[in-house]
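Lecture notes, unit on protein representations.

Consider one protein chain, 131 amino acids long.
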Amino acid sequence: MRWTKQRKMMIEAVSRDPQRYVDITQVDQYLRQAYPGLSHNTIYRNFKEFESLGIVELRQHNDQMQVKYRCDPYHHHHFICDQCGRVQEIKMMPIDDAFFERQLPGIKITGHRFELHGICAQCQAKQQRGQ
């Protein structure tokens, strides 16, 4: 993969806050200020390639594709605060795909995503203080 100014700017945009997912449309708007001719499809395609390289994580949320800088190169899972959007990594036992394949004969698992949603401790503390 050739390292271009546009790709560098994409990574800089999502690495500013590695604890949150960002709508790709927000990154798109940010990049188009510097590169007006850059297409949304090019940005999306580059993020898909970055995902395959383990640089970012993508997810679909409320009909929006979102991206997050991946600071941990190993497979992991998340808790996502529904109020502030902060993402916290969950440490857990590895999930064995063979376990699921035994329960669902004839299938082949190609991946999975595990996310917990709720309200983080900081947001709960703010609520209790009445902020």
